[in-house]
Amino acid sequence: MLCSTPAGLYSPAGDFYIDPVRPVERALITHGHSDHARSGHAKVMATQQTLDIMGLRYGASFAGETQAAELGKPIGLNGVSISFHPAGHVLGSAQIAVEKDGTRIVASGDYKRRADPTCLGFEPVACDVFITEATFALPVFRHPDSRDEIAKLLKSVEQFPERSHLVGAYALGKAQRVIRMLRDAGYDQTIYIHGALGKLCDYYETQGIALGPLAPATIEKGSTSDFAGAIVIGPPSAFLDRWARRFPDPVSCFASGWMRIRQRARQGGVELPIILSDHCDWDELTGTITELGPQQVWVTHGREEALVRWCDLNGFAARPLHLVGYEDEGD
Ligand SMILES: [Zn+2]
């Protein structure tokens, strides 16, 4: 029903790929991050939000034709039944359930279990085979309470009113989550955003996720003091270029699950690590497998070995999938 190929997870029965890494005839896409959602497929099926996001990122002609999948509503494809279910990863993200002859496989894509005010929560779907990501599949990865991490940022802003706080956050999902969580914590000042975030933030607003006052992080009058005390959000890549140098004595912050590793934060020159992930931590991964109780677990992109070993020790048949080409842009 599903097997791994160089182009990605393929269904010989249904003749489709899930999140293929090469252009294919028919692709089912779990979410809009660039390593999962690529342009150039002939036919693409995804949630309407994921299709919209792909259109924003790649232009309207990103695929030959598109079909929007409604959450929870089965669609027949060459005798295989397919349904999309919320994955809790980013806006529009979905798990894809594939069913034939009474056997159901759920490809969860990227997912997380904790609350995120910018997308629907993960919905457990009973299945025979559960395909799980393994981005943070080591016991060292235990994400702290997200609200405490946002509180750390706000405390620093209060402590250093003369400095700007430059927050690295992935353009799709993480940036909007940080902004929304700042609002939920009572921060009502204008938040300045890098140009790469504009279209996606606007799109989130159209989907009912209010982000409050945002303004482009550009200096028009040439005065860097404009940003003293401000929170500025940009994609991590922007921190390496000239863009970052315009802000006054910035506190460099990075919102990522990787910030759990101090050494990694230090190497990246991050002064204020914000441990905020759009992926499951170790407890969420093992908790989800325990909750679903599938007959088999297939493990992909990340630290496959550790999770496969945990499954073996806990009575779940498991194997790594060895899919290549996924370097999640939204960790
Ligand atoms: Zn992702």
TrEMBL record:
Protein name as annotated: DNA ligase-associated DEXH box helicase
Native species: Phyllobacterium endophyticum
SUPFAM superfamilies named in the record: Metallo-hydrolase/oxidoreductase
Domain of life, source organism: Bacteria
MF annotations from Gene Ontology: ligase activity; RNA endonuclease activity
Record key words, sorted: Ligase
